[in-house]
Amino acid sequence: MKQMLTFLMLSIFTLGCSQQVPEVLKTEFSKEALNQKLENEEGKSITVKEILSHHKGKVVVIDFWAGWCRDCLKAFPKAIELEKNNPNVDFVFFSLDRSKEGFNRSLEKFNMKEKENYWFSTGWKNDFNNYIELNWIPRYMVIDQQSKIAKYYAITPEDPEIQATIDKLLK
Protein backbone atom coordinates (compact mmCIF):
# COMPACT_ATOMS: atom_id res chain seq x y z
CA MET A 1 0.00 0.00 0.00
CA LYS A 2 2.83 2.39 0.89
CA GLN A 3 4.57 1.72 -2.45
CA MET A 4 1.34 2.31 -4.34
CA LEU A 5 0.78 5.61 -2.54
CA THR A 6 4.38 6.69 -3.29
CA PHE A 7 3.93 5.78 -6.97
CA LEU A 8 0.65 7.72 -7.12
CA MET A 9 2.20 10.81 -5.50
CA LEU A 10 5.20 10.72 -7.86
CA SER A 11 2.90 10.31 -10.85
CA ILE A 12 0.79 13.31 -9.84
CA PHE A 13 3.91 15.39 -9.18
CA THR A 14 5.44 14.44 -12.53
CA LEU A 15 2.24 15.19 -14.43
CA GLY A 16 1.88 18.53 -12.69
CA CYS A 17 5.45 19.54 -13.44
CA SER A 18 5.86 18.56 -17.05
CA GLN A 19 5.96 20.96 -19.95
CA GLN A 20 2.95 20.91 -22.17
CA VAL A 21 3.07 22.35 -25.67
CA PRO A 22 0.38 25.02 -25.98
CA GLU A 23 -2.52 24.13 -28.27
CA VAL A 24 -2.15 27.34 -30.30
CA LEU A 25 1.32 28.37 -31.46
CA LYS A 26 1.02 32.15 -31.51
CA THR A 27 2.72 34.32 -34.12
CA GLU A 28 2.15 37.77 -32.59
CA PHE A 29 2.20 39.32 -29.15
CA SER A 30 -0.87 40.91 -27.61
CA LYS A 31 -0.83 44.59 -26.66
CA GLU A 32 -0.91 43.59 -22.97
CA ALA A 33 2.03 41.22 -23.42
CA LEU A 34 4.07 43.91 -25.18
CA ASN A 35 3.34 46.37 -22.37
CA GLN A 36 4.65 43.99 -19.71
CA LYS A 37 7.45 45.61 -17.72
CA LEU A 38 10.72 43.97 -16.82
CA GLU A 39 13.80 45.42 -15.15
CA ASN A 40 17.30 45.62 -16.55
CA GLU A 41 20.41 44.95 -14.44
CA GLU A 42 20.39 48.53 -13.12
CA GLY A 43 16.77 48.18 -11.98
CA LYS A 44 15.39 50.43 -14.73
CA SER A 45 11.90 49.47 -15.91
CA ILE A 46 11.45 48.61 -19.61
CA THR A 47 8.59 47.05 -21.57
CA VAL A 48 8.81 44.01 -23.82
CA LYS A 49 7.83 46.31 -26.70
CA GLU A 50 10.80 48.59 -25.98
CA ILE A 51 13.16 45.62 -25.76
CA LEU A 52 11.96 44.28 -29.12
CA SER A 53 12.13 47.73 -30.73
CA HIS A 54 15.85 47.88 -29.83
CA HIS A 55 16.27 44.77 -32.01
CA LYS A 56 13.95 45.74 -34.89
CA GLY A 57 15.36 44.40 -38.14
CA LYS A 58 17.25 41.61 -36.35
CA VAL A 59 16.40 38.01 -35.50
CA VAL A 60 16.13 37.59 -31.73
CA VAL A 61 16.22 34.51 -29.53
CA ILE A 62 14.61 34.96 -26.13
CA ASP A 63 15.94 32.58 -23.48
CA PHE A 64 13.75 32.24 -20.38
CA TRP A 65 15.81 31.03 -17.41
CA ALA A 66 16.57 31.38 -13.71
CA GLY A 67 19.62 30.69 -11.57
CA TRP A 68 17.63 28.25 -9.39
CA CYS A 69 16.50 26.19 -12.43
CA ARG A 70 18.57 23.01 -12.85
CA ASP A 71 17.22 22.37 -16.35
CA CYS A 72 18.23 25.91 -17.37
CA LEU A 73 21.75 25.46 -16.01
CA LYS A 74 22.12 22.11 -17.78
CA ALA A 75 21.03 23.80 -21.03
CA PHE A 76 23.48 26.72 -20.75
CA PRO A 77 26.41 25.10 -22.61
CA LYS A 78 24.17 24.33 -25.60
CA ALA A 79 22.54 27.77 -25.40
CA ILE A 80 25.99 29.39 -25.50
CA GLU A 81 26.90 27.16 -28.45
CA LEU A 82 23.71 28.24 -30.27
CA GLU A 83 24.62 31.87 -29.63
CA LYS A 84 28.21 31.42 -30.85
CA ASN A 85 27.00 29.64 -34.00
CA ASN A 86 24.66 32.54 -34.82
CA PRO A 87 26.64 35.80 -34.58
CA ASN A 88 24.00 37.65 -36.66
CA VAL A 89 21.27 36.88 -34.13
CA ASP A 90 20.59 38.87 -30.96
CA PHE A 91 20.15 36.81 -27.79
CA VAL A 92 18.08 38.27 -24.95
CA PHE A 93 17.69 36.63 -21.56
CA PHE A 94 14.51 36.93 -19.48
CA SER A 95 15.09 35.86 -15.89
CA LEU A 96 12.53 34.35 -13.58
CA ASP A 97 14.71 34.58 -10.51
CA ARG A 98 12.59 35.17 -7.43
CA SER A 99 14.24 38.41 -6.27
CA LYS A 100 16.40 41.25 -7.55
CA GLU A 101 19.21 39.95 -5.33
CA GLY A 102 18.79 36.46 -6.78
CA PHE A 103 18.82 37.90 -10.30
CA ASN A 104 22.05 39.81 -9.61
CA ARG A 105 23.68 36.76 -7.98
CA SER A 106 22.70 34.56 -10.94
CA LEU A 107 24.16 37.02 -13.46
CA GLU A 108 27.44 37.05 -11.55
CA LYS A 109 27.60 33.34 -10.76
CA PHE A 110 26.83 32.17 -14.30
CA ASN A 111 28.91 34.80 -16.14
CA MET A 112 25.87 36.47 -17.69
CA LYS A 113 26.94 40.08 -17.09
CA GLU A 114 28.07 40.65 -20.70
CA LYS A 115 24.70 39.48 -22.07
CA GLU A 116 21.43 41.39 -22.42
CA ASN A 117 19.44 40.49 -19.31
CA TYR A 118 16.04 41.42 -17.96
CA TRP A 119 14.16 40.30 -14.87
CA PHE A 120 10.42 39.86 -14.27
CA SER A 121 10.10 41.83 -11.03
CA THR A 122 6.38 41.00 -11.12
CA GLY A 123 7.16 37.29 -10.84
CA TRP A 124 6.20 34.37 -13.01
CA LYS A 125 2.53 35.31 -13.41
CA ASN A 126 2.25 38.45 -15.51
CA ASP A 127 0.65 39.58 -18.79
CA PHE A 128 3.59 38.48 -20.96
CA ASN A 129 4.17 35.05 -19.44
CA ASN A 130 0.45 34.35 -19.24
CA TYR A 131 0.02 35.29 -22.90
CA ILE A 132 2.81 32.97 -24.08
CA GLU A 133 1.59 30.26 -21.70
CA LEU A 134 4.93 29.97 -19.93
CA ASN A 135 4.62 26.78 -17.91
CA TRP A 136 8.24 25.72 -17.49
CA ILE A 137 11.77 26.92 -18.00
CA PRO A 138 14.00 26.87 -19.86
CA ARG A 139 12.03 28.01 -22.86
CA TYR A 140 13.20 29.57 -26.08
CA MET A 141 11.42 31.75 -28.62
CA VAL A 142 12.64 33.05 -31.96
CA ILE A 143 11.44 36.51 -32.96
CA ASP A 144 11.69 37.69 -36.57
CA GLN A 145 12.94 41.01 -37.93
CA GLN A 146 9.46 42.58 -37.58
CA SER A 147 9.11 41.51 -33.91
CA LYS A 148 6.70 38.69 -34.78
CA ILE A 149 6.98 35.24 -33.23
CA ALA A 150 8.71 32.87 -35.66
CA LYS A 151 9.27 29.94 -33.26
CA TYR A 152 6.82 29.99 -30.36
CA TYR A 153 7.77 27.00 -28.26
CA ALA A 154 11.09 25.26 -27.70
CA ILE A 155 12.28 23.73 -24.44
CA THR A 156 15.91 23.12 -25.33
CA PRO A 157 18.49 25.09 -27.31
CA GLU A 158 19.14 21.84 -29.18
CA ASP A 159 15.64 21.85 -30.71
CA PRO A 160 16.47 21.63 -34.44
CA GLU A 161 13.52 23.90 -35.24
CA ILE A 162 15.30 26.82 -33.56
CA GLN A 163 18.25 26.65 -35.95
CA ALA A 164 16.00 25.90 -38.93
CA THR A 165 13.88 28.96 -38.08
CA ILE A 166 16.96 31.16 -37.70
CA ASP A 167 18.38 29.91 -41.01
CA LYS A 168 15.08 30.56 -42.81
CA LEU A 169 14.82 34.10 -41.39
CA LEU A 170 18.40 34.99 -42.30
CA LYS A 171 18.12 33.93 -45.97
Automatic annotation (TrEMBL):
Keywords, alphabetical: Cytochrome c-type biogenesis, Disulfide bond, Redox-active center
Location of the Thioredoxin domain: 27-171
Major subcellular site: other
GO biological process: one example: cytochrome complex assembly
One Pfam family per UniProt: Thioredoxin_8
InterPro entries found in the cross-reference section: Thioredoxin-like_fold (IPR012336), Thioredoxin-like_sf (IPR036249), Thioredoxin_domain (IPR013766), Thioredoxin_ResA/DsbE_sf (IPR050553)
CDD domains documented for this protein: TlpA_like_family (cd02966)
Entry GO CC: cell envelope
Subcellular localization: Cell envelope
Superkingdom per UniProt: Bacteria
Keyword match Transferase: no
Name this protein carries in UniProt: Alkyl hydroperoxide reductase
Top-level taxonomy: Bacteria, Pseudomonadati, Bacteroidota, Flavobacteriia, Flavobacteriales
